[in-house]
Amino acid sequence: MVRAARTAAWESRTRQGSPPSLLLTLLGDYWWGQEEPLPSAALVELLADFDVSDVAARAALSRMVKRGLLESTRSGRNTFYSMTARAQQVMRRGAERIVAFGVDDDAWDGTWSLVAFSVPEANRAAREALRTRLRWLGYAPLYDALWVSPRPHHDEALAELAELGVTATTAFVAEAPESSRGSLVPQSAWDVAELAERYREFVIAWEPTHAALGQGAIAPAEALIRRTQLMDAWRSFPGLDPDLPRRLLPVDWPRPAARALFLDTYEALGAPASVRVRQVIAKHAPELADRVVQFSLLADPPGPRPAGSTGVPVRTSAT
Q1: Span 123-177, pLDDT tens digits
Q2: Of 89, 147, 158, 318, which is the most exposed, with the fewest CB atoms less than 10 Å away?
Q3: How many domains is the chain partitioned into structurally?
Q4: What is the extent of the structural domain holding 121?
């Protein structure tokens, strides 16, 4: 009963990504580094596996072109799309963050990175974008305009602020006093108990998929859906979890088990999921089907390997 309730709680918090987000995930997972454009019909059919309508899929493709993530070309009556250099950069930065996130490291020097800024209240779009980007870097608000992180990401934070046009900023490194009675300690910027519960819900929600893989019970189309949903689910954690040093966390911290489950399941789903992508592309562009790859977080360095490959050993530890 408790397990079912936790699974339901996780599913209620985890919504499927938007069509543009799904497209970027699919391209990153199975078309990484490829320059050849894909026919729009293939991309629309792949999104249909996620119950995205033709109209919504084509609108998503148009939005990604406007955002500079895709480039469109035409050949007769057919439209083709390829990733831009900006899209490749976005995916590379995201992959690097996912790989580095959650690796236990006790070598913390006790310093905190702080970023202070001023954004006019009227500029809500910039404020929301800023909060999203700072959380992705592991920051949280100690006060409204003073954000803190246990990791030295202040240069990256300042770069994000500059990109958003926020120039009234400063960043510095500081240590919290040993005696902080009555004051607000930096780690209080996060609800660690709530975060731990989310990790436990993640494990409960995804353990059945991991078990089904061991029994060979997941078909290619289902594997594609679950692998994409799994990445979307895990990708939410870097925006919630500041990757606090081990000594600031409870002894029974559940993230290592959740991370190991994520890596094992994501890698194992890669081979059957890539079969589905090859099937779809072969229907619309047979000459491109053998270019499908499967992205591996466990390759050294992380990157694409041949579709259907299971040659990279899966790590079972949290590191």
Answers
A1: 777 778 888 888 888 888 888 788 888 888 878 888 877 877 776 677 767 676 6
A2: 89
A3: 1
A4: 111-175
Taking the C-alpha atoms of residue 200 and residue 7, their distance in angstroms, rounded to an integer, is 9
Q: Which residues on neighbouring strands pair with residue 111, listed in sequence order?
A: 175
Distance CA 235, CA 22 (A): 12
Asked whether residue 23 is domain-assigned, the answer is no
- Give the SS3 label for residue 174: strand
CA distance 235 to 299: 19
Tell me how far CA of residue 44 lies from CA of 51, 176, 284, in angstroms.
10, 52, 11
Q: Quote the tokens at residue 232.
A: 């979307």
The predicted model scores a pTM of 0.80
DSSP codes joined into one string, 232-249 = HHHHTGGGT-----GGGS
**What residues contact 14, with CB distance under 8 A and at least 6 apart?**
205, 229, 232, 233, 236
In degrees and rounded to multiples of 5, residue 74 shows phi and psi of -125, 145
Write the DSSP symbol of residue 37: P
In degrees, rounded to 5, the angle at the alpha carbon of residue 97 between the alpha carbons of residues 270 and 302 is: 45
In Å, how far from its chain's centre is CA 318? 18
Report how far residue 33's alpha carbon sits from residue 303's, in angstroms, rounded to the nearest whole number: 9
Question: Over the stretch 294-304, which tens digit does the pLDDT of each residue have?
Answer: 999 988 888 88
- Answer yes or no: are the C-beta atoms of 40 and 61 closer than 8 Å: yes
% of the chain surpassing 90 pLDDT: 45
Q: Is 16 within the bounds of a domain? A: no
End-to-end CA distance of the chain: 32
Amino acid at 280: V
Please report whether residue 195 resides in a domain: no
Least-confidence region, from 42-51, 97-106, 182-191 = 182-191
